[in-house]
Write a structure and sequence with these properties.
This protein is mainly alpha-helical and 142 residues long. It contains six helices and three strands, in the order βαββααααα. A three-stranded antiparallel sheet has the order 1-3-2. The longest helix has 17 residues, at 125-141. It is globular, with a radius of gyration of 16 Å.
């Protein structure tokens, strides 16, 4: 699978750097015209399985949490990315109310919006980078 999205490409490059060459499911190919990131057959099978199981444009927070755990357990996202992906911000602070974790949302759009806002708002570089990686993961799963 060849990934052309900048966010997805950045995600794959960082994942390759974080994992040892013998265990990394990501392979990097470079040519003079453009950089391309390809997934090994193992990583591609894992991603395809996750993509078949979850719809990142229509999933609950409970499903997002399960998917993020699978991604982390298979080395496709880091612990930091897992934490930021699964942290649920409250939408309102009222006496004892919390957000329903079973309401379906478009998490691809949600993280893309958060990433775009972080870039425009000059948020800290670490958070912006992690949001970019998460967006790339979700794009590759959609």
């Amino acid at each position: 699978m060849i990934i052309h999205s900048a966010s997805a490409m950045q995600y794959q490059v960082v994942q390759q750097r974080l994992q040892s060459p013998t265990t990394s499911p990501v392979a990097r190919q470079t040519n003079s015209a453009e950089d391309k990131v390809t997934l090994s057959s193992q990583a591609q099978q894992i991603e395809n399985g996750i993509a078949r199981q979850y719809d990142v444009t229509n999933m609950s927070h409970t499903e997002l949490t399960e998917m993020a755990k699978t991604l982390k357990d298979n080395g496709l996202i880091s612990h930091r990315e897992h934490m930021l992906m699964t942290f649920q911000l409250p939408t309102s602070i009222e006496a004892g109310q919390s957000q329903d974790p079973n309401i379906k949302k478009n998490y691809l759009e949600n993280f893309q919006t958060r990433y775009d806002f972080a870039k425009q708002d000059d948020s800290d570089a670490v958070t912006t980078d992690i949001l970019q990686k998460i967006t790339g993961v979700l794009q590759s799963l959609s």
